[in-house]
Design brief:
By secondary structure, the chain is mainly α. The chain is built from 4 helices and 2 strands.
């Protein structure tokens, strides 16, 4: 397609002249709109919230307690998984007759490790989430407790 056959370039529309501004003076000046700040009621009591936000020793102790509780929970449930799933090979090594058992035509080790381990892991994960949320709720209740 030659340059002669090309369609004409689109033209930008000219701004409409208004009676308030003289023709050719440019676009009207922008107006800056500032919204008023909305005051929010603090959801936290002043004492404990201040301890947390200012990172004082008390606030650090509170957060450290939450972290320790979450770590203890994670280690406990990790031990449950390690004993539950890691103990099965030991069981099959110690008692070979258990390893040779069949259930519905499937060897017991395949059934336990290949099928039943997944619902076990889902249950442990669900338990962890519930208990971790309970720890966080206890922490929130402690922080929001009115000062005496």
């Amino acid at each position: 397609m030659a340059a002669e056959d090309a369609p004409p370039a689109p033209r930008r529309p000219e701004p409409a002249a208004t009676s308030d501004s003289p023709v050719g003076s440019g676009p009207p000046a922008r107006t800056r709109v500032v919204l008023a700040e909305v005051s929010r009621r603090s959801r936290w009591p002043a004492g404990t919230h201040t301890e947390l936000t200012q990172q004082t020793r008390v606030g650090e102790a509170l957060v450290r307690g939450l972290v320790r509780a979450q770590l203890a929970l994670a280690l406990q449930l990790s031990a449950v998984v390690m004993v539950g799933l890691g103990g099965l090979p030991w069981l099959f090594a110690i008692a070979p007759s258990v390893g040779r058992m069949t259930v519905l035509g499937v060897n017991l080790p395949w059934l336990l490790l290949g099928v039943l381990s997944f619902p076990f892991l889902v249950a442990v994960g669900w338990t962890y989430v519930r208990l971790a949320e309970r720890n966080e709720q206890d922490f929130t209740d402690l922080v929001q407790r009115p000062e005496r």
